[in-house]
Design a protein that fits this description.
Radius of gyration: 19 Å
Number of helices: 6
Oligomer: single chain
Strand content: 25-35%
Number of strands: 19
Number of domains: 2
Order of helices and strands: EEEEEEHEEEHEEEEHEEEEHHEHE
Helix content: 25-40%
Structural class: alpha+beta
Length: 292
């Protein structure tokens, strides 16, 4: 893994040119600026930290903003910067959580707020080890593709914490930019350290379904979904984009991709888990539902 070199805090000086790309929250608030700088990249998280990434993405230097704790910078690096760096190094990295079911991995892919971390935590506290909370790395394996483990922690909002996490679970230090709590893997929140064959991929709906429903996606539909949820450091780098799309197309041709939606009620999570386990261990039906 690429290591972070942390430097003393500094003010975030103005950048001469506008960013070539930005990330914003749904309400329009700026989250990340992507700049070209010193032959590489500058990733700016306003009022939090700057990260200088070398042109080959093999070196990352972090500069906290004044009064920002090292734990916050490390958290930003693991959850935001490292997945982008790995994408520059040719890896397939997606906004997804993943858990181990049987001897395979099941991934939950979604934008923030659709429950992928809650699902991962629900499985992890009930004996199915998790591989990642977000930043899922997928690579070709002997048969199909494999899901790789990420850093062993899960981030949860307070309601998910209250519903799922035992009081004995290990809590990581808080960070400045989010009210989410981060929990470290232990006997309460079990973690899988080994790559696992990717057996099922569920792209999560918005929770408006009256019951649990799923249907298989075509390869073309799966490509669109994977691209929407990809980490990419440089969206203007045409050779890397072409390679990324080729890799995604190969992945999407695997008959393992489904759209999944279900009511977002904590009291239903046990039945959601049971339905997912049954489906993941089956040959895979094209379409189905589970009445609650």
């Amino acid at each position: 893994m690429v290591e972070l070199r942390l430097q003393p805090a500094r003010l975030q000086s103005p950048v001469a040119r506008p960013p070539f790309h930005t990330w914003t929250f749904p309400d329009g608030t700026l989250w990340t600026e992507f700049h070209r700088a010193n032959g590489g990249y500058l990733l700016r998280f306003p009022d939090l930290a700057d990260f200088q990434v070398s042109a080959d993405a093999l070196a990352v230097t972090g500069f906290p903003a004044p009064d920002i704790l090292e734990t916050t910078v490390q958290h930003l690096y693991l959850n935001q910067v490292l997945p982008l760096v790995l994408s520059k190094l040719g890896k397939l990295v997606f906004h997804a959580s993943a858990v181990e079911i049987g001897e395979g991995a099941v991934a939950f892919v979604a934008e923030s707020g659709r429950g992928k971390s809650t699902l991962a935590a629900s499985f992890a506290v009930n004996g199915c080890r998790f591989l990642t909370d977000d930043g899922l790395v997928v690579e070709p394996g002997v048969q199909g593709f494999e899901a790789l483990p990420s850093h062993p922690s899960i981030r949860l909002w307070a309601d998910s914490e209250a519903a799922l996490v035992p009081p004995t679970a290990r809590r990581a230090p808080p960070v400045h930019y989010t009210a989410k709590a981060r929990f470290l893997a232990d006997e309460d929140l079990v973690f899988c350290k080994q790559p696992r064959p990717l057996r099922r991929v569920y792209f999560l709906g918005d929770g408006r379904a009256a019951t649990l429903e799923w249907h298989r996606l075509t390869p073309a539909e799966a490509v669109i979904e994977w691209v929407k949820h990809s980490f990419l450091l440089d969206i203007e780098e045409k050779p890397r984009l072409a390679s990324h799309f080729d890799q995604v197309a190969t992945l999407a041709n695997q008959p393992i991709h489904y759209h999944l939606d279900y009511p977002r009620r904590f009291e239903d999570l046990a039945r959601v888990r049971e339905a997912i386990v049954e489906h993941a261990r089956s040959e895979g039906t094209i379409k189905g539902r589970a009445d609650f």
